[in-house]
Design goal:
Elements lengths: L3 H5 L9 E5 L3 E4 L6 H16 L9 H10 L10 E9 H7 L6 E4 L11 E3 L12 E7 L8 H23 L4 H4 L8 E9 H12 L6 H17 L1 H13 L14 E2 L10 H7 L1
Parallel strand pairs: 1-6, 2-8
Antiparallel strand pairs: 2-3, 3-7, 4-7, 5-6
Helix pairs in contact: 2-3, 7-8, 7-9, 8-9
Bound molecules: flavin-adenine dinucleotide.
The site of flavin-adenine dinucleotide has 9 residues, from α7.
Length: 278
Amino acid sequence: MLNDYYKKNPDQITLDKLALRVFTPGAQLIERVDLFDYYQDVIETAARNCYKSEARLGISRDMFLKRRIETGHLSVFEHRVVTARLIMSRSASHQLVRHRIAAYSQESQRFCDYTKDVIDIVEVDEGLKGLEKEFTLWCLRPPSVKTERQIANWEMGVLVAYRSYLRLRADGVPPEDARENLPNATKTEIVTTFNLPMWRHVFTERALNPHAQWQIRGIFQILLTEFTRYMPVIFGDLYDRLAGEALKNPKFDAREHVKLYLHHDIVGTDWWKEEADA
Ligand SMILES: Cc1cc2nc3c(=O)[nH]c(=O)nc-3n(C[C@H](O)[C@H](O)[C@H](O)COP(=O)(O)OP(=O)(O)OC[C@H]3O[C@@H](n4cnc5c(N)ncnc54)[C@H](O)[C@@H]3O)c2cc1C
């Protein structure tokens, strides 16, 4: 924690007082998943209005909705949206927000204080007696960073960036400016809402596209699997493509490096840390 000692002596924030904690990128549905079946009823009602075939409501819903997808009549699916929380590196979130027909609420590096996530330090040197905390940053270590040398380089880069953030903060620079020095690897959480056709679009661009970056690809692949579990009629065709095409590269399965966090209707802070520690 930034206390008076550090505020007077920013240079005393040294690398040995910092800790990096590696998070697993992933996603969490923030939805009542039991309502997904009802969503499909709403969409059927809307779509049947186009054909005035309400007499058949509930009789052949799944076949009817599937046909709408096959014929490209996707606008009827816009009557419902789904919200998920994505946990990813700050750099990956820049890719996500390129999708424009969406609502996003992202962890703010202006209002969140990255000096405050503290854990006990193991050793306290003479000059710092009484200070029992160190600084901790949650960040992403990509799976390609795996040899001892690569990890050492990655770690040093992130630590030096983080130290610079902390020293600027200690020296009176506000979070909104000090954050310029936080690394791209910094964890971010971004609550994302798309309507159902947008989910289909983003799954196509990010889950089924082998050129999409592994982090966003893995996250959208596990989400596509989850969406198909609850709404197979609407997402099953994309899931079949995922199974058939996108996983052809046996050397690297992005899904192994991401995680589906538990569904919660109401979520407190630090929910993902508890799971990461479990
Ligand atoms: C593999 C990959 C590499 C990429 N590399 C780069 C890169 O190097 N640099 C970079 O800047 N971006 C890059 N992107 C991002 C990309 O250019 C798009 O910005 C992003 O994928 C959003 O998709 P979208 O264009 O379909 O738009 P979305 O915002 O997802 O919109 C969905 C659809 O709505 C329609 N739409 C939305 N807004 C408009 C509009 N204003 N006018 C007309 N139609 C609209 C379009 O049909 C669009 O396809 C990359 C994406 C991928 C998947």
